[in-house]
Amino acid sequence: MNKGILPFLFFIFSLLPAQQKPVQIAFLSDVHFQDLYGIFSDQDFKGILNPKTGKPTILRTMDSQLHSTRIFNENYFAFLKALDNIALKGIKIVAMPGDFSDDGQAYNLRGLHKILEQYHKKYGIDFYLTTGNHDPVGPFRQDAGKDDFLGEDGNPLGIYSKENMGKIKNTIITKDIAESGYLEILHELRDFGFYPKKENLFWSTPFGFQSVKNYSYEKALQSADYSQRMYEVSKGFSVPDMSYVVEPVKGIWMVAIDGNTYIPKNINENPDIPSNYKGASIGYNNVLAHKKHLIEWIKKVMQEAKANGKTVIAFTHYPMIDFNDGATNEIKKLLGEKKWQLERVPEEEVAEVFAENGLQIHFAGHMHINDTGIRKKDNKMLVNIQVPSLAAYLPAYKVLIIQSPDMIEVRTEVLNEVPNFDTLFPLYEKEYKTLEKDKNKIVWNRDILKSESYHDFMLFHLKELVRLRMIPDDWPKDFIEKAQHLNGEDLLLFILNQNQLKEKNIRSTTFRSWTFEDLLLDLYKFQSADELAKKDIPKERLHQYEILEKLYLENQSQDSFLLQLQSVFKILKLLSNGDPADHFEIDLNKQEIRKL
After folding, report:
1. Residue 513: exposed, middle, or buried by beta-carbon count in 10 A (0-12, 13-18, 19+)?
2. How far apart are CA 301 and CA 289, in angstroms?
3. pTM for this prediction
4. How many helices (H) and strands (E) does the chain have?
5. How far are the Cα atoms of 453, 459, 472, 519 from residue 528, in angstroms, in the given order?
6. CA gap 286, 244 in Å, rounded
7. Omega into 394 within 30° of 0, i.e. cis?
8. Stretch 155-180: mean pLDDT
């Protein structure tokens, strides 16, 4: 090439408009941050000494972790690993859709603030939070505590905010374990979305919503005050709402919806009594009836965004769309209406209302699952993306990549390896030895302490959770007693005899390698991880499930036990064949989702 042409070409290219980089937003939900190395402001207790690190540690027991849908301790290390990953990818915006803390205690909020501030200063990451049902457990601060911290002797330790609260004799008293209300959370975490920053291009709340044309930082700052963000949930009962919309980068509006609805238990009681409010875990079903101002606000936000060419991404703690991949009715039929957390499934009206008002993309948490839900109505589409928890199987976060106003990519980032996840194992050994002495207690499986990766640890957590809690709580006892000793071959021989097996060229002996208990665990793997669960189930078994699904769905027997098994396979089929939930793109123009 003629050397004289090069400067000319550089000049021409310099005149071309620079192509805008895609905007990336990471979503970290249900972190349930508990500060292992926290400090109480009114108490010298710093935890029990860990022989592995030489550091005092405030931790919950393994027994409590394995009876809970979340872990309390190792997620501390997973959170730091996720933030390191995000920083490495050069992502500058992180949204946290609720349950960023585990019951909003002051010492945990301080610890969270410190970490978020560190990553903001070091990597320039901006954090935008919205509240979940574990952040304010109720709208106002209330005395509380936990009786499942680990004590020096391996027995449970109670930590309470005042005397005579718990059943444990060995106790620590500190005000920092009380459950914060909105006011305390707002004061501690105001810099992470709850208040406007000067560098934000736009910020507003549902109360006195500003238009783009009339926007001013000073007005936004005034409207952010706690006193300006109250509404009547019931006559005479005013509670806070921390919803806000923010424009962190040009053209992108992030709508943080506070989906917590705290309804009074007794309307004749004093509205200032913190304990006189129901929990918010039901989610959007209560929003429709008790928080209608949010629907009107979303309508205004979407209209203003459209008029000003803004791309809107909403996030709340609670799902807007049924997250069971069409299996909800079958689960109800098999287990009953109040099992499998079915009370948390949003009514169809929720998706309809928000779609009608223009909302298209919504990220949610709460369920600790990986899932994608789609609803279309009257030429409008709403996509609900469930963000997994770092404190449950499958530990992951989501990355949203806005390629253009109409083309959005979503990627799931799984945390398989987490440095230091096994740091607390020597303390659990002490707990196990103490528990073993009490013959009346069901002891957790010590093999969890042999986990070689965070992925293995969380999979083991799910396995123990299913054994210790899900099966006893959710499943009919007589059904489990009949099914628990069966293997895959038994399930096959219930509906096909040897001649029929030969005709279909099926070797029943190959089905012996797994049990009904394996099948139930795999069912929960699919519920939690969606398509990503397939990496944790042998391929041959997946193929055998497909054979059994087909055979049981074709089976015409009216035997009650076989009908129950038929339901199990229907649920398995639906949960394992949902919409793309790993890596996919959303075409808002064509209203399509494509697996990548």
Report:
1. middle
2. 20
3. 0.94
4. 19, 21
5. 18, 10, 19, 14
6. 19
7. yes
8. 94
